[in-house]
């Protein structure tokens, strides 16, 4: 039964809630391709619904019910999509986690999520033996691997549990929910890097993901195929998939961005749209001219940030360029026109969104001055509705009826908004948000380290690199190669600092707060150690 609301700002459930939305397309467009995967396999809408119902039935058989959290620890691919859609089809909440997490970060997220069921890639599941698994009771391995040893309190299940027909689980057609899934129900909890504390789980409703996936992209329609190179544990990946599900279009899900094969991947997957995040656009612009520069098929690209001349990029590669500003908690409140001319801008507020630039007391700053960007929307539930099991962080972020982004902005005389800095002191490296707090926690866990501060410094490609400034313990000698090895075993690869500098003391305020702006201003000094110059280069696991 299609649900409708008297409030015209709210779409019907069949237009925004995954379960009725997918059922609708499976009837209207059963043979149209919804998803193409890196191995060349494809799912039509009818096949996507069948895979979703099978996964939902399997999760239901494991005790998952409406409102429960289901953790997904998987690389991009069929299983990641199967678990996400299957969980939502049950009315459960999709809780993906970063495939680089381990140790303390992993334990924190598991403890916070309060999930009983996790679906994990076998290589990742091995890390569960290193941590307290909290409320987890059942782990489904994405592939059968007898060599994986799980903690004794966890029941182990093979991937077949997610692929059996609903009838095999004693369910006729698909598991029913206790009540219809509403647009304001939690759809996902996505963990975003902490900046002054541990990572927080962003509660996102169906209306939030709908708003983030539909309103900022008026130029997309059902003929488009979105190249999903960002992970499905990030908002970039979830928005990509949902953007096409809403329109009845299609996605090409790949493992990640590879500059050398990018245009070949676009052409072979017949993709028409993608996001160029961080240094991606700069890396493509620096490539020598190639045979596919104008024959790849990409029609539009979202460049975040606007790091290259959009008109020049369009002239070389033939695709229209847009830019925007977004974060996990919001829904792209700032968007640009096609081929935006003001380099470095994030665009202007889109319809249905209100933004302000305010000081520390939420008073609006003078035009041209820098302050914090705060946001609210006309549509209810179009932004996050808090942080899971973190009421203080929720109150802090939603002060005075506005969501506080923690990012510093200014607006120019033409009405274009410019990102200035991260008030929250986050670091962004290769598309990943990095918590300086979490880097510092692992550095200071080393026996020879007294204290440390992590800051961003510029890289050659326009992204951030991580510099950690360390005060050694009195009388200690720190072997920087051994310290790096210590961090590699405890941090995701992208969080391991590239630069390390040893100092006798950190600059501090009278209240003993580290003056990180001083460290950023000093940057990479002549005495700073560079692990890449020392021959230590790190890469994530390629699945």
Strand order of the largest sheet: 2-1-11-10-12-13-14
Q: Decide which structural class fits the backbone.
A: alpha/beta
Distance between the termini: 40 Å
Mean pLDDT over the full residue set: 92
Low-pLDDT ranges = none
Number of distinct helices: 15
What proportion of the residues is helical, as a percent range?
25-40%
Number of strands: 27
Describe the structure.
The strands form seven sheets. The chain has a seven-stranded mixed beta sheet with strand order 2-1-11-10-12-13-14, with helices on both faces. The chain contains 15 helices and 27 strands. By secondary structure, it is of the alpha/beta class. The model has no long low-confidence stretch (mean pLDDT 92).
Salient structural properties:
23% strand, seven-stranded mixed beta sheet, 25% helix, alpha/beta, 543 residues
Topology (elements, then pairings):
Layout: H1 13-16, H2 18-28, E1 33-37, E2 42-44, H3 45-61, E3 69-73, H4 78-89, E4 93-96, H5 103-113, E5 117-120, H6 122-125, E6 138-141, E7 155-157, E8 186-192, E9 200-205, H7 206-214, E10 225-228, H8 235-247, E11 250-253, H9 262-269, E12 273-277, H10 280-286, E13 300-304, H11 310-317, E14 320-322, E15 324-325, E16 334-335, E17 348-349, E18 353-358, E19 371-377, H12 391-397, E20 403-411, E21 417-422, E22 427-429, E23 432-434, H13 436-444, E24 449-458, E25 464-472, H14 480-488, E26 499-502, H15 516-522, E27 529-530
Parallel strand pairs: 1-11, 3-4, 3-5, 5-6, 6-7, 10-11, 10-12, 12-13, 13-14, 25-26
Antiparallel strand pairs: 1-2, 8-9, 15-16, 16-17, 18-19, 19-20, 20-21, 22-23, 24-25, 26-27
Helix pairs in contact: 2-3, 3-4, 7-8
């Amino acid at each position: 039964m299609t649900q409708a609301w008297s409030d015209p700002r709210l779409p019907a459930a069949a237009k925004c809630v995954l379960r009725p939305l997918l059922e609708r397309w499976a009837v209207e467009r059963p043979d149209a391709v919804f998803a193409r995967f890196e191995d060349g396999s494809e799912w039509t809408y009818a096949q996507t619904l069948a895979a979703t119902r099978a996964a939902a039935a399997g999760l239901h058989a494991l005790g998952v019910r409406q409102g429960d959290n289901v953790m997904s620890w998987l690389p991009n691919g069929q299983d990641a999509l199967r678990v996400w859609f299957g969980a939502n089809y049950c009315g459960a909440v999709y809780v993906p986690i970063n495939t680089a997490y381990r140790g303390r970060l992993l334990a924190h997220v598991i403890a916070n999520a309060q999930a009983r069921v996790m679906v994990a890639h076998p290589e990742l599941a091995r890390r569960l033996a290193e941590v307290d698994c909290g409320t987890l009771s059942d782990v489904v391995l994405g592939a059968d691997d007898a060599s994986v040893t799980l903690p004794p309190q966890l029941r182990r299940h093979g991937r077949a549990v997610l692929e059996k027909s609903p009838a095999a689980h004693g369910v006729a057609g698909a598991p029913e929910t206790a009540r219809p899934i509403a647009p304001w129900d939690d759809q996902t909890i996505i963990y975003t890097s902490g900046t002054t504390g541990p990572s927080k789980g962003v509660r996102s409703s169906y209306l939030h993901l709908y708003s983030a996936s539909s309103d900022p992209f008026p130029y997309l329609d059902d003929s488009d195929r979105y190249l999903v190179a960002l992970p499905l544990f990030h908002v970039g990946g979830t928005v990509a998939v949902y953007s096409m599900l809403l329109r009845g279009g299609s996605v090409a899900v790949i493992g990640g961005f590879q500059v050398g094969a990018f245009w070949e991947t676009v052409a072979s997957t017949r993709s028409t749209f993608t996001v160029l995040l961080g240094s991606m656009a700069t890396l493509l612009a620096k490539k020598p001219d190639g045979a596919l520069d104008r024959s790849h098929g990409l029609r539009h690209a979202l460049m975040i940030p606007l790091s290259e001349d959009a008109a020049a990029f369009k002239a070389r590669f033939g695709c229209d360029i847009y830019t925007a500003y977004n974060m996990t908690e919001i829904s792209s409140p700032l968007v640009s026109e096609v081929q935006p001319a003001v380099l470095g801008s994030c665009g202007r507020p889109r319809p249905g969104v209100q933004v302000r630039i305010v000081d520390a007391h939420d008073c609006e700053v003078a035009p041209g001055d820098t302050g914090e960007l705060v946001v609210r929307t006309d549509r209810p539930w179009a932004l996050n509705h808090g942080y899971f099991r973190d009421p203080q962080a929720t109150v802090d972020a939603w002060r005075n009826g506005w969501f506080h982004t923690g990012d510093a902005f200014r607006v120019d005389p033409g009405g274009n908004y410019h990102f200035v800095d991260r008030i929250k002191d986050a670091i962004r490296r290769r598309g990943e948000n990095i918590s300086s707090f979490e880097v510092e926690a692992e550095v200071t866990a080393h026996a020879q380290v007294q204290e440390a501060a992590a800051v961003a410094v510029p890289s050659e490609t326009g992204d951030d690199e991580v510099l950690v400034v360390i005060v050694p313990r009195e009388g200690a000698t720190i072997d920087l190669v051994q310290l790096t090895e210590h961090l590699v075993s405890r941090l995701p690869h992208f969080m391991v600092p590239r630069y390390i500098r040893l100092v006798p003391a950190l600059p501090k305020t009278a209240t003993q707060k580290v003056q990180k702006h001083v460290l950023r201003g000093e940057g990479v000094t002549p005495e700073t150690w560079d692990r890449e110059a020392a021959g230590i280069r790190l890469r994530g696991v390629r699945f």
